[in-house]
Request: fold
Amino acid sequence: MYSDVSIAGDPLALPHLLPPVPQHPRTVAEFAGLARSIAADRERWAPQVRYDATTRWYARLRRGPGYEVWLLSWLPGQSSGLHDHGLSSGVLTVLQGALRERALPSASTGASGGAGREVNRVLSAGAQRAFAPGYVHEVVNDALEPAVSLHVYFPGLTKMTPYACTSAAPRADTSRAAAAG
Reply:
């Protein structure tokens, strides 16, 4: 009498019968590549975009081991306010429209991408910015058209610290941070 194993052989010895091992990004370059691959699949993300006149709209698109992917929409005039991303690093990719980023020097490292001074840059569709924990920035849609962006955070986003800015250095806005939870 024959068994399935004697006919087909040991299924564990045949790699092509095993499900593929999921590949998850581990480096900044791989997270940027993940963002580019999602950006290229417009049919997947575009139908999910919503616009809200009172606040920025956002939705989590994906969660993987140690990361999250968020989709955000920005109507003209909407802003994130100055903030950091706690212990998370990230990749911001503009999918549609244009956004202005204002990056401030970090209180601990002086890093803003501009040798200790405030940096303003316009990010058009396709532009990407990678940032490390402690990176303080504000993102604003100061164009006349709506914008859409994709944000990959690793590890997943658990905290955003709002900042108040004086003419000196940025400082954590503890009144807002406490109110936010």
Strands lie at 57-64, 67-74, 89-96, 98-104, 119-124, 128-131, 136-140, 147-154, 163-165, 170-172. The mean pLDDT is 83. Helices lie at 4-8, 28-40, 42-45, 174-180.
